[in-house]
Design goal:
By secondary structure, this protein is α+β, with helices and mostly antiparallel strands. Helices cover about 40% and strands about 20% of the residues. The strands form two sheets. Strands 4, 5, 6, 7, 8, 9, 10, 11 and 12 form a nine-stranded antiparallel sheet that branches. Helix 5 packs parallel to helix 8. The radius of gyration is 26 Å and the shape is elongated.
């Protein structure tokens, strides 16, 4: 079959002329030939397979940048990339489903604790911290990587156990509309805190008072915004239940995610926690 004009190619590929122009501009699907005088685009039949692949990936909500990375791959590698993306998407949809269920229950007058909330005691700690306003998940993750790089650079002494784990505090919600801020913190030995702070100019030294923490384990892996909301809402529901006990008060120390190497020595164990003062009831 001879080359096709953009109209015929759009019809056969089921992509609009507008989409074809966009994909040409982005280098995803350039025409085989462009007429020098008229600027008219022509496509070859062999390009239909790639056009249909792009259309299918877009139906799966692949970003254009991800599609551009997949197109040059061999079929087996492209299939693996699609599998990885879909697995991540299913995980995200699962967390969104949990958040939607929680919201429906809440709007229906129910107030449920989705996670099993546990408590622990945290002693007074000397913390080296850095705090910043960030917008969206990408900026939040970039900030976290920057903090981890600082820890690796300075090789700070480690305090054993959960009380010595580094953590991030969400002083406000982080989204495309809200910029936190987030504060990253690393406990350090009190008797070395001043000297360590002088050695780490990017970090600020402060003391956090002793307190209890209500927490929900969230395992390993990346925590997305939906997980964040379900975890924080579970802790809020727990704190509401605790109001029957006049001795319990949520401390103004900030919702946080803490990180500790797992017992198996692989990856990192995480939990979502809210500080409190007083003695919770059973």
């Amino acid at each position: 079959m001879d080359e096709m004009g953009i109209g015929e190619f759009a019809s056969r590929s089921r992509l609009s002329a507008r989409a074809l122009r966009i994909y040409d501009e982005l280098g995803l699907l350039p025409p085989a030939r462009v007429d020098e005088d008229s600027g008219y685009r022509f496509y070859e039949p062999e390009q239909l397979k790639q056009a249909r692949l792009i259309a299918t990936l877009r139906q799966l909500h692949f970003p254009l940048a991800a599609i551009k990375a997949i197109l040059p791959l061999e079929p087996a590698k492209a299939a693996e990339r699609v599998r990885q993306f879909w697995a991540a998407s299913e995980s995200k949809h699962s967390s969104l489903r949990a958040l939607a269920t929680y919201l429906i229950d809440e709007l229906s007058g129910k107030r449920s604790v989705v996670y099993d909330v546990k408590t622990r005691e945290i002693p007074e700690r000397s913390l080296l911290c850095v705090k910043r306003n960030v917008t969206g998940e990408k900026e939040a993750w970039a900030f976290g990587k920057e903090f981890i790089a600082l820890l690796r650079h300075y090789q700070l002494p480690q305090i054993e156990g959960r009380a010595g784990a580094f953590f991030q505090i969400f002083w406000g919600e982080v989204s495309e509309d809200s910029d936190g801020p987030i504060e990253w913190c690393r406990p350090v030995p009190p008797d070395q805190a001043e000297a360590l702070a002088a050695r780490c100019p990017e970090l600020t030294l402060r003391t956090e008072p002793a307190h209890g923490e209500a927490f929900v384990p969230i395992g390993n892996g990346q925590l997305d915004g939906a997980d964040w909301h379900v975890g924080s809402r579970s802790l809020e529901a727990w704190s509401d239940q605790q109001q029957r006990n006049v001795d319990i008060r949520v401390a103004s120390l900030g919702l946080r995610i803490t990180y500790l190497p797992s017992e198996a020595g692989k990856d990192t164990y995480q939990d979502f926690a809210i500080p409190f003062t007083g003695q919770p009831h059973e």
